[in-house]
Amino acid sequence: MLTLKCPYCGVQACETELSPGYEAHLKRFGPGSSDDDFETYLFTRPNVKGVHFERWRHAYGCGKWFLAARCTTTLEVFGTYSAQTPAPPAEIIEAIKSKRPDWSPET
Amino acid sequence: MSNAMSVLEGAVSTGFVTVRDAGLTGMVSVRADLTDAATVAALSSCGITVPVVRQIVDGVAWMAPDELLLVTEYADAPALAQKVQAAMADTHALVHVVSDARAVLRVEGAGTKEALAKLCPVDLATLAPGEVRRTRLAQVAAAFWLEDAENAQIICFRSVADYVFGVLQMSARKGSEVGVFTR
Amino acid sequence: MSFRLPSGGRLIDRTSELKFTFNGRIMRGFAGDTLASALLARDQMLMGRSFKYHRPRGVVASGAEEPNALMNIGEGGRFEPNQRATTAELFDGMAARSQNHWPSLEFDVGAINAKFARFLPAGFYYKTFLYPRHFWKYVFEPIIRQSAGLGAAPKEADADTYEHFYAFCDVLVVGGGIAGLMAARDAAADGKRVIVLEQNGHWGGRAPVDGAVVEGKPADEWVSVTLQALEANDNVTLRDRCMGAGVYDHGYVLGYERITDHAPANDVPRHRLWRIRAGHVVTATGALERPLSFAGNDLPGVMLASAVRDYVVNHAVAPGKRTVVVTNNDDAYRTAEVMVNAGLSVPAIIDARPSVDEALISKFSDLGVEVKVASAIAKVKGKDRVTGVAICAQDSNGSVSTTIECDAVAMSGGWSPVVHLWSHCGGKLTWDEDQAMFRPDPNRPPTNQTGEGFVSVVGWANGEIDQGDIAPVWIMPQGASIETRNKMWLDFQNDVKVSDVQLAAQEGFESVEHAKRYTTLGMATDQGKLSNINGLAVLADALDTGIPQVGTTTFRPPYTPISMGAIAGEARGEIFQPLRRTPMHAWHEKNGAHWEPVGHWRRPYCFQQPGESVEDAVNREITNTRTSLGLLDASTLGKIVVKGPDAGKFLDMLYTNMMSNLKPGKCRYGLMCSENGFLMDDGVVARIDEDTWLCHTTTGGADRIHAWMEDWLQCEWWDWKVWTLNLTEQFAQVAVVGPNARTMLETLGGMDLSAQALPFMGWADGKIGDFNVRVYRISFSGELSYEISVPASEGLAFWEALMEAGEPFGITPYGTEALHVMRAEKGFIMIGDETDGTVIPQDLGLNWALSKKKEDFLGNRAHSRSHMADPTRWKLVGLETVDGSVLPDGAYAVADGHNENGQRNMIGRVTSTYYSPTLDRGIAMGLVLHGPDRMGEVLAFPRVDGTVAYARIVSPVFYDPEGEKQNV
Q1: What is the distance between the alpha carbons of residues B143 and B139, in angstroms, rounded to a whole number?
Q2: Cβ distance of B63 and A17 shorter than 8 Å
Q3: Given an 8 Å threshold on Cβ–Cβ distance, is A30 in contact with C856?
């Protein structure tokens, strides 16, 4: 029963107020894309053990989608941030590195 | 408006707090970028001030960064919507009456926070009056705010008004007081 | 024999006598008794039968860890099995029954199992699978089924109510003993918001029993003073009879408050589940004493040493007149002292340690108690209760040196901290060699959202246990024979013995988790609170390794079982689930609605008239609508408004067909696909003005599609200027359907509804009667149809006005089944019938709705994947049975031959099937291999009963294929 702070309305929401949206920062492939790219977009997920970027919706609250950086094993939350972000922002990367020095965005 | 009927038809239930149908209530949804100067100006021309995050002030409730709920008399909602719509004609905005999509209930009495704390994952001890909390009420979405320590208003979807009344009635049964906030 | 002492008892009130029944016999106890203490006071030592061997069992413990004294308590709607007599507070009128025996507690046929004990070793259940199959079916299964389960299942609905309560605090203290109250006091002094949970009805834990002095005051007095101070602090919430049941992620803790178990009442919730979010959790959960493993350690009269003194001090109940104490540590000597002080006889303390502090020995010798050092119990004597103990040397193989007569045995194998709550969310343990126990490892706490430890442990739970010197003794005597080890119980409730764990190790179940499941050690309702450490030690010894190497099994919440009612909370009966009602719900109910659940909505399936069957009602509704006039409550359909300069572009991405070129005032049917290309929703879109569209969705789709829209707008195309608003519940919507629809509406006066003013697939705002309406000329039935929306608050009045105006035309309300049959007669697909998450528009012959003009829409790219473009995908056709009967729903069409799995080859399946009163025959739609190319072919559909239905492939449009009736 985790809690996440909604970056839009500021509520520290409990899991029962949220709905999960799986991996964040997927790049959409549409018409004209290769079969491989399209397959990757639709189905291929790394199923990370450790630092993970994911989508959540404050479904029972302000209704906004937001993104979270979270450790899948300890449930430590490094930060939540706007969904209108193509890649994790610098301060989130910093926050992760301060807790997980061995982690880098490429891993 | 003689055809319009409140979904709870004036229901009242008395337990350790009173749960009652607040009756037909006028509501207008405004979707617009609330940080945009043109939006703020257009709203201001209608006498509407955008409240700070999660507050309700003078019948204007902050629901999301791009959503306000205007609360007024039921009969006044269509005209209010038209007025706001007209003022925002040149900005990117969506304005619509939602009075009939929702039900408004009141909870009244010293145990108000307690009755709500049985249903909502919200820290009622620190929730200040005038803060709109959109949350889960038992199994449905709802928004509520405390007017003061003993009075709350709850807005839920119309179709589940009976359910919300039912769970509040259950939570407010005499004999089920918890005794946490009323010390 | 066990009995009540003439004086004493810190928890009982001798002036308040309570009457209760046990197995139908009337008994009396005092306020403050538990069921266990009240039974012991009446010399009722036999309290139950064990699970497997039906051994006679008495109470072992005095608290939540009790494995034996499980009772059926209550009657009728308040009956509940498997309640621990040690934590069941006595009340006037309590009705308790013992469990797991037949015909009676004293004479139990199942006890014969004990005679066959050698055939029921560890893993016997699994071993039964190895025998020939018929053995399992005819021999083992009937026997196991007969004997499975402990108490009886309740027969009546629960008479009580339950609820949840959400609470928040800075510091949550679990456990109201000395350590817990000190932690609460400190936190409160720091200005923290504090909640303290105590599982019992009294505070202070064991300290008052053991005569502790705290900060210069006797424990009882200290507790009372401290509680007063805490109660006076507004930042502190104290709850007794409330157990910390489980610790979860991010400081979430469940508290299980038993409000009326000690005093049943009608108007008060029985249990309250506290859903607490704590910044920090302090567990002050104390410790549990371990039994010792010696032959016959399960006989009634053998109890934990601490429990013996609990009963004497708290309830003035003596388990026996002559009590032998057996121990491996100093702490059990307290029991001997308590007994002697109460005027009871302690013939000996059997101490397994090779040497004991001389001062201790002489102190007890002065009290008249002989201390037998380096000694062990070879065997407990007695059949249904203790009559004596045979003594031997601990380092022997069990040759008896002497025998002592006694009627009770108080045993202590040392103490184990209650680490459960520390461990629930990942806190790790460390083995303390000196004290022979696992204790919380402060360096590896459970961590929260910030990555910091959020649980700390204080007092005995942290291993700060005042048990003096202890020697690890896991079986006694050390060299016990196999026959003896076969009589040493580890897990009392599940009947697991030392020999069983050793057998498991011998058979290769070396992992502690495997050995647990193979032997069922620790798998009973007490979850091994008494047995785990002793079992681990035996396993470690059998594997010739250390206890920390073996490790513990996983601690899972709840700490002790909690009621299903508490978990459900308020969600029972009428408010079990939210039930969504349309504005006309009450009218439907009054007028014979036969309900169908559609998501959380209730929609009328049909409206039954008096004496009418459901089938007849559906047929009447269809015929009446097709020939004159019908009325459908369509309020549940989703209505989402989409507005903005980019709204057209957005809808072109969402729908497979074009929506941007729809003219204001017009409607268009549209399809939505997922990115996988599968059909996910459909509905009619109306263009309201230059930058506004209203999208209708299916009943189940409203919230899902609205969320889907917001997902794309917020997460992918956030620079597009589009707003959405879900107006589903703002409007009541009524479909006025049938050849008389226009004529009837015109009698109400108002707007022009002629074909010229409002043609098919148009919409208009206006007035009907005195209602402000929006009218859509759309049809899902194939008839002349107006779908009319009014504000939901006026829905009922509008519906009633239509019913009144329709009376001269014989208007009939119709339900969802008539709707389904009429759409099927027209060959219209239904999301959820023709689609199942694997169907693409092309399968349904909906290629016309896939825009060729658009470069992109959701699902478009997927449609060109090889499997989607496969020409052998099954395609939609109509199916007409040769004999006019109705095809079974979901039936498969078979072809010759078998597939690689040996199954019959299949070439199609039925997706919708109905009796059509219009055509007086069965009609169906289905997906068939090369279907549209096989018109006229007859397919075979085997029925479940072995017969075969034959159906001809036809066009799916059975009725009015030219669409002349809807477009008038």
Answers
A1: 13
A2: no
A3: yes
> Is C844's pLDDT higher than 50?
yes
Q: Coil, helix or strand for C860?
A: helix
Query: For residue range A35-60, what is the model confidence (pLDDT) as tens digits?
Result: 999 999 999 998 899 999 999 999 99
- For an interface test with B, which of A12, A15, A62 has the most B Cβ atoms less than 10 Å from its Cβ? A62
Q: For A82, which residue in chain B has the nearest alpha carbon?
A: B65
Nearest to C149 by CA among C100, C105, C98: C100
For the four alpha carbons of C75, C80, C81 and C87, in that order, the dihedral sign comes to negative
Question: Domains, chain C, ranges and CATH?
Answer: 1-152 (3.10.20.440), 160-288+415-466+558-576 (3.50.50.60), 292-412 (3.50.50.60), 481-545 (1.10.10.1100), 584-636+730-822 (3.30.1360.120), 638-726 (3.30.70.1400), 871-967 (2.40.30.110)
Type of residue at A63? G
Considering only CA atoms, which of C261, C306, C315, C275 is closest in space to residue C7? C315
pLDDT at res. B24: 97
Q: Under DSSP, is residue A77 helix (H, G, I), strand (E, B) or coil?
A: strand
N-terminal to C-terminal alpha carbon distance within chain C: 96
CB contact under 8 A, A10 and B63: no
Listed by number, the residues of chain B in 80-109 with a beta carbon closer than 8 Å to a beta carbon of chain C are 92-94, 96-102
Q: How far is B81 from chain A, CA to nearest CA, in Å?
A: 22
Q: What is the pLDDT of residue C99?
A: 86
Q: State yes or no: pLDDT of C436 exceeds 50.
A: yes
Q: Which domains does chain B have, with CATH numbers?
A: 12-23+101-171 (3.30.1360.120), 26-100 (3.30.70.1520)
For residue B111, CA distances in Å to B18, B174, C231, C517, C583 come to: 9, 10, 19, 48, 31
User: In angstroms, rounded to a whole number, what is the distance separating the alpha carbons of residues C529 and C418?
Assistant: 9
Q: How far apart are CA A11 and CA A56, in angstroms?
A: 13
* pLDDT at C108 (0 to 100): 73
Q: In the structure, what pLDDT confidence band is assigned to residue B1 with cuts at 50, 70 and 90?
A: very low
Residue A27 C-alpha, separation from nearest chain B C-alpha, in angstroms: 26
The string of pLDDT tens digits covering residues C277-302 is: 999 999 999 999 999 999 999 999 99
Over residues C602-613, the mean pLDDT reads: 97
Return the C-alpha torsion angle C184, C186, C191, C195, nearest 10. -10
Q: What distance in Å separates the CA atoms of residue B19 and residue B154, rounded to the nearest whole number? A: 10
Confirm if C414 and C393 have CB atoms less than 8 A apart. no
Chains adjacent to A (≥3 CB pairs closer than 8 angstroms)? B, C
Residues forming a β-bridge with C556: none
Q: Are C446 and C247 in contact (CB under 8 A)?
A: yes
Q: Over the stretch C885-940, which tens digit does the pLDDT of each residue have?
A: 999 999 999 999 999 999 999 999 999 999 999 999 999 999 999 999 999 999 99
Strands C601-607 and C593-598 turn out to be: antiparallel
- On chain C, the residues whose CB falls within 8 A of the CB of A2 are 249-250, 449
Q: Which residue in chain C has the smallest CA separation from B180?
A: C237
From the options 3.50.50.60, 3.30.2270.10, 3.40.190.150, 3.30.360.10, give the CATH code of A3-99. 3.30.2270.10
CB atoms within 10 A of CB C836: 13
Distance, CA of C899 to chain centre: 41
Convert the pLDDT of each residue in C527-578 to its tens digit. 999 999 999 999 999 999 999 999 988 999 999 999 999 999 999 999 999 9
Q: Which residue has the tokens 């922002």?
A: A89
Q: In this structure, are residues C472 and C450 in contact, taking their beta carbons and an 8 Å threshold?
A: no
Q: Which long-range contacts (CB under 8 A, 24 or more apart) does C540-548 make?
A: C541/C474, C542/C501, C542/C502, C542/C505, C542/C506, C543/C505, C543/C510, C546/C431, C547/C431, C548/C430, C548/C431
Mean pLDDT confidence for C467-479: 94
